Amino acid sequence: MVRRLASLLVLCAVAAGCDQDSSSPSSPPPSGSAESVTGRERVGWVQGSISPGDMAMLRFAAYVDGSRRVLEGFSCSPSGSDAFACSAPLPPLTAGRHALEIASFFDSGSGVVESPRSPPLQLMVSGIVAQLSPPTSSNGFAASDGRALHAEVLAGDLIDPADVAVDTRGRAFVVERRGTLRIVEPESTAADDALIEPLFGAREEGARALSIALAPDFARSGLLYTLSAQPSDGGSRVFVTRFRELRGRLGEAAVVVSQVVAADEADGLLRFGPDGSMYIAVGSSNGGSGQILRFLRDGRIPAENPGGSPVYWSVDALPVGLDWQPADVSLWTIETSRTIDRFEVRRRGEPDVNSTATRQPEASDSPRLPRGTQASGLAIVNAPASAFDGDAIVSSIGLADLLRFDGSRARAPTGEPVRLLQGRFGAIGGVTATPSGDIYFFTQNNEAWSAGRDVLVRLRVVE
Predict the structure, then answer these.
(1) Is residue 327 domain-shared with residue 237, that is, in the same domain?
(2) N or C end of the chain, less CB within 10 A?
(3) pLDDT top residue among 2 and 391
(4) Residue 43 lies in a domain
């Protein structure tokens, strides 16, 4: 049913008038040349040798430099015998040169059947190609593998969000770096005012909030923990504050961990592991190595920690993602630096053999993320009823996406990830997943949207 498509043609800009007949494709540009575009145009092609009934089943994917994205907003009309003239808006493109290929596909019921790709069209994108603005409503769309998704904006006007946690009732707890906590009710909308609670007192002058985690028994105890950092002699002081939440208010604040780390401008995150312990990933946002610290919930150092130290694991760069694979309780982290983003995996019971003094990062066989990812978070889905169960979801600032890696074999993934958002929400600042399979993420688009306009979004798979 699916056939190779005819060569591609960039059509007139969507917002502008067009005097030419854009229903027929032209020949591709000569080898070595590239068609200059702004990124706001449509691309056209001919889908040939197909009946109208089969045509109604087809969808289309664009391959930009080999990366697959499902095309949205396409339209097709009859053009001669058994042929259809089609066009669609160009997918999001960064400035520079790109190769664009189109393929048609359909869901056969047992999997996706896809045509060979069209001959590549060389594009030279100039200027700013996408003027983003904060979304305010729900929408449906498809991931790069064709899977249907639904996104709902739960809260807007976030100010420099740092992390999010979600309770069993669906309430989202969003920490902002300025030291405030926003509590968003599950049926809230972007127009609603979330409850805002301060996290810092006078003694935390100069502190920045970094992360939040709900106690494993939060539904009963109401205890939540925040990770913050402030400048200190010789580096930074990171501290964990425990609060009790009751009807949207915080009380009984107590600092349970206070640790000086050799990290200028410390950044990090806080998570509870399957063993009930607190794991603190910390490093410098200016580069250098990082550490995973492990404490009991009351701030004591676990007896099984190596050498009685809070250091559980030493890593080579800033750890921005931390979660556990449910299949074998292995700990996955993501390290990021100016030159690399990669997974690291520590199996349950392994000693801390990878100290910064002995590790050779150049020789590491840890799988790397796509070039330019600039990872900002990691969530491993632990929801047996979800199509994403066991998969790793990586939030990306550089690629403006959520990257889905297959985690079904309980090992750090390899190969190309599925792109869930494909630039629809701009840069993504962090991600978490719930036991129901919902994925929550927040944006990080200060430069594109101006400060204080980021949003919290709930993403669901359409079954």
Answers:
(1) yes
(2) C
(3) 391
(4) yes
Model confidence at 108: pLDDT above 50: yes
**159, 117: one domain:** no
Residue 302, φ and ψ in degrees, nearest 5: -60, 140
Residues 141, 69: Cα–Cα separation, whole Å: 11
Distances, alpha carbon 142 to alpha carbons 68, 195, 462, in Å: 12, 33, 10
Which residues make Cβ contacts (< 8 Å) with residue 436, sequence separation at least 6?
383, 385, 386
- Structure confidence by residue, pLDDT tens digits, 376-428: 999 999 999 999 999 999 999 989 999 999 876 555 566 678 999 988 899 99
Q: Does one domain contain both 364 and 324?
A: yes
Q: Is residue 120 part of a domain?
A: yes
Are 175 and 148 part of one and the same domain? yes
Inter-residue contact 281 to 292 (CB < 8 Å): yes
- The type of residue at 267 is D
Query: Do 185 and 97 share a structural domain?
Result: no
The answer on pLDDT for 222 being more than 80 is yes
Q: How many angstroms separate the CA atoms of 166 and 188, rounded?
A: 14
317 and 400: one domain? yes
Last residue of a domain, one of 125, 151, 182: 125
For the chain, what's the residue count? 463
C-alpha 53/C-alpha 284 separation (Å) is 58
Report the C-alpha dihedral over residues 79, 82, 88, 90, rounded to 10 degrees: -100
Chain segment 199-212, per-residue pLDDT in tens: 887 567 788 999 99
Number of domains in the chain: 2
Look at residue 319 and tell me if it is in a domain. Answer: yes
Tokens 């982290």 locate to: 333
Q: Which domain holds residue 59?
A: 9-125
Distance of CA 154 to the CA centre of its chain: 17
